[in-house]
Design brief:
Strand content: 5-15%
Number of strands: 5
Distance between the termini: 62 Å
Number of helices: 11
Number of domains: 3
Radius of gyration: 24 Å
Helix content: 40-55%
Structural class: alpha/beta
Shape: elongated
Order of helices and strands: EEHEEHEHHHHHHHHH
Strand order of the largest sheet: 1-5-3-4-2
Largest sheet: 5 strands, mixed
């Protein structure tokens, strides 16, 4: 049975339902509701404890406008139904990670700890572990992700050292957080002929060469060029591609 109320405090938000509220989405809903209020036709979904399973953003928009929110209580709704019901606004990878971490999935908890330890985004973390693979993303969303048991930390420590040098000489370093740049940086750090000490010395003199690129290969070519400058041990590009 659909009910309505302005007593917003009776509703509870679950910690495993999205990592964070999308304030921009709430603002868009507010403007849409101002234009035409259709909340009656899309009630929020609650379990028997008045926890919001679907409709957090609609509830916040209604509260901001001080209008009635429509809701339905379904005693059979479970935690796992959160993913199935949240179709109005597509979940991001961060939301899936948050859900599985909060519900005690060890593989995701280990992955979350790995990301925080290395200060990485989910896309960079998944890209490092499995490459750009849609199958991995699908398994990640379905709760079937497997985290490798052994991961070398040395590559990440070297990557961050390189980034800190680049940041000192670059006024717009946003691309340094991109998957494309990290893929190139990790690849060169793992190369058998990579001379880290020489690369760092060259990098401090050639940071102006590091700029926004359209592909990870373009970043890699630039990093190899820097590495090979006046180096005895060189990385040969045609062996790589």
């Amino acid at each position: 049975m659909i009910q309505k109320t302005k007593k917003y405090d009776i509703f509870k938000f679950r910690e495993d339902n999205r990592q964070k509220i999308d304030e921009n989405h709430v603002k868009r809903l507010i403007e849409s509701i101002k234009n035409r209020n259709l909340l009656e036709f899309r009630p929020i979904m609650l379990n028997s404890d008045y926890e919001v399973i679907d409709g957090q953003h609609r509830l916040l928009a209604a509260k901001e406008l001080n209008i009635e929110i429509f809701y339905e209580i379904h005693k059979d709704l479970k935690s796992g139904d959160i993913i199935e019901l949240n179709v109005a606004k597509t979940w991001q990878m961060e939301d899936y990670l948050n859900y599985y971490v909060k519900n005690g999935h060890k593989e995701y908890q280990n992955f979350d700890a790995f990301l925080k330890k290395n200060n990485l985004s989910i896309n960079i973390g998944l890209g490092f572990l499995y490459g750009k693979c849609h199958k991995v993303n699908w398994k990640f969303k379905k709760g079937e992700f497997e985290f490798p048991q052994e991961i070398s930390q040395s590559a990440f420590e070297k990557c961050w050292a390189c980034i800190e040098i680049i940041k000192k000489h670059n006024s717009n370093p946003h691309f340094l957080k991109s998957y494309k740049f990290w893929r190139a940086l990790i690849k060169i750090n793992e190369h058998a002929d990579f001379d880290y000490v020489k690369f760092i010395k060259n990098l401090t003199k050639m940071t102006e060469k590091i700029c926004l690129k359209t592909t990870w290969q373009a970043y890699y070519f630039t990093l190899v060029e820097i590495h090979n400058w006046m180096s005895v041990k060189k990385i040969v590009l045609h062996d790589e591609f």
